[in-house]
Write a structure and sequence with these properties.
Blueprint lengths: L1 E5 L4 H12 L3 E6 L7 H10 L3 E5 L5 H10 L2 E6 L6 H6 L1 H21 L4 E7 L22 H19 L4 E7 L1 E3 L18 H9 L6 E4 L11 E2 L1 E3 H14 L5 E6 L5 E2 H12 L5 E4 L8 E2 L4 H7 L7 H14 L7
Parallel strand pairs: 1-2, 1-4, 2-3, 4-5, 5-6, 6-11, 7-10, 8-13, 9-14
Antiparallel strand pairs: 9-12
This protein binds nicotinamide-adenine-dinucleotide and UDP-4-deoxy-4-formamido-beta-L-arabinopyranose.
Amino acid sequence: MKILVTGGAGYIASHTNALLLEKGYEVVAIDNLSNSSPESIRRVEEITGKKIIFYKGDTRDKNLLEKIFSENDIYAVIHFAGLKAVGESCAKPLMYYENNLMANLALADVMSKHNVKRLVFSSSATVYGVPKKLPLTEQSPLSATNPYGATKLMGERIFSDLYNADKQWHIILLRYFNPVGAHPSGKIGEDPKGIPNNLMPFIAQVAVGRLPVLKVFGNDYNTHDGTGVRDYIHVMDLAEAHIKALEKIDNYGVEAINVGTGEGYSVLDMVKAFEKVSGKTIKYEFAPRRSGDVDACYANCDKAEKELGFKAKYNLYDMCRDLWRWQTLNPNGYED
Ligand code: NAD
Ligand code: WQD
């Protein structure tokens, strides 16, 4: 069974590809490599001993999509392709709307024409905006606080409208919380370009001496130690959630499902856990709050368990251990 994976060389996609191949699916991947390296594709092939059919190109390119759907009998699509940096989306909103929304439209159009109507879409906890009540359930109010978040909210809307117009579609909108960690082999992981925006890759780069000090953004939040609390989920758990979504997709029209652990950890909790696992001291200093950050954000995961039979297995130490292995084996990411 062939699965088309858009953004297939990216961080979450590469881990999902590894699991798809292990479970016996065939993977067809498309990526324009704007935020990734073809080396991730090669490494997944190395881990699994199986080939990926890789198309270098843009998900907005309908001619290329036509070619892919003509050359391959695609069972379902997992749509990861998108730009994802919140700060960059505020600086370059048009680039984000153009990339993320046009990719959705082109993909949906070509899928319709080829009568491939099973889709798993990478949504995000960002669609909950500033949480009013925790934990967040799928019924919590939705809003966007930045252009990136707006593209995810609009993506959900586009795919929901598509289902409303044509009930043959089966669409699962997976709302990821904070994906971290790496494949247990240490061969694939997150490889941010430039200085990482996100906490865990930043910590890992401080630990290997690539960055001098972690700035902890705010220590006056309304949390147990004053630093921001988030729901970190191991990327291998997240990959598993995609497999479950594919297995159950025909049960649904369009459905939004949270993918987290339900546990909230603070920045300092993460620093301590990483220090414990790595044996390194993480140098940090407190800095002002980062604009747009919220005190706390974590998921109610009941729906994923009830509907998909998915429950996260990996804990905080597993996330830190696997990230540390990836970082020490590949201190400069895929460049090594
Ligand atoms: P990533 O940047 O590693 O992967 C995205 C991939 O899409 C990259 O390889 C990039 O080159 C590719 N891409 C971007 N635009 C493209 C286009 N127009 N055509 C073809 N390829 C394109 O990011 P990731 O963390 O693996 O995220 C995957 C998806 O999950 C994204 O849609 C992201 O918004 C979403 N998401 C990520 C997080 C997170 O914190 N990592 C959280 C929630 C949701
Ligand atoms: C986590 C915590 C920071 C860096 C982002 C996106 C979200 C989703 C996941 C895609 C916060 C603190 C961070 C640093 C720090 N992505 N921090 N120093 O902001 O929860 O979510 O990624 O959909 O949309 O907004 O993740 O890892 O950036 O931050 O103190 O150098 O770490 O303030 O409390 P965030 P993050």
